[in-house]
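Lab notebook, page 48
Experiment: co-folding of the full assembly
Goal: obtain a model of how the components sit together before planning crosslinking
Operator: M.T.
Materials (sequences as entered):
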Amino acid sequence: AKLGILISGRGSNMQALVAHAGSAYEVVVVASDRPNTPGLAWALEHGIPTFALSPKEVGKATYEVALDAALRAAGAEHLALAGYMRLLSNDFVGRWRGRIVNIHPSLLPKYKGLDTHGRAIAAADAVGGCSVHLVTEELDGGDVLGQAEVPILPGDTPEMLAARVLAEEHRLYPRVVSEWLSR
Ligand code: GRF
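Observation: model returned without errors.
Model output:
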C-alpha cells in the first residue's frame, strides 16, 4: 500500500514508519503544515517526496485543497498522522474516510487532546502509554487499532514519561500500520 505521512514537528514517528516500510506499505510522500520543520528536512535528505505549505499563508481551505491534491498526485492511498498538530476539516476526513490513522500519546479513551502526560501524572495513574487510532471527525475519537503501555514511576515528570512513551510509539506505530495495511 502507498502511505503518505503528515507531520508538524521533529518527525521521529515518521522516521520509525520509514524504517519499517516493506511488504505492507511504502512511504510515497511526507507532507507538513510547517515548511521549516526538521522532519521535512530529514525526509528530503532521505529522498522521500515532500509537500509543505503553511495554512497561515493561504488560509485553511486552500491549504487543505493543495494538501489533498499533493497527496493524491504522489499516489498516496492511506495517511498516517505523525505529530501532525492541526485538526483536519470534516471535508478532508470525509474524502479519506477510513484511510487515516493517528498516533496519540495516551491510552485512549483517556486524555484526548494535549498535555496527556501531565494529566496522567496528576491523576496518579499507574500506567501511561500510546494508542494508534482511526481518524474521524471527533478529535482522537476513532476506533483504536493498537495500544502500548508503560509504567508511570514515582517522581516522573511529563518529560520523563513522554520519553518512555515515545520509545513505545516507535515500536507500536509501524507494527499497527503494517497490520492495518496488510489486511
Ligand atoms: C508524539 O508523541 C505523538 O504521539 C504526538 O506528537 C508527538 C510527535 O513526535 N501526536 P514526533 O514528531 O513523531 O517525534
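Interpretation: The beta strands are 2-7, 26-32, 50-52, 78-81, 100-104, 127-134, 144-151.
Next step: discuss with group before ordering constructs.
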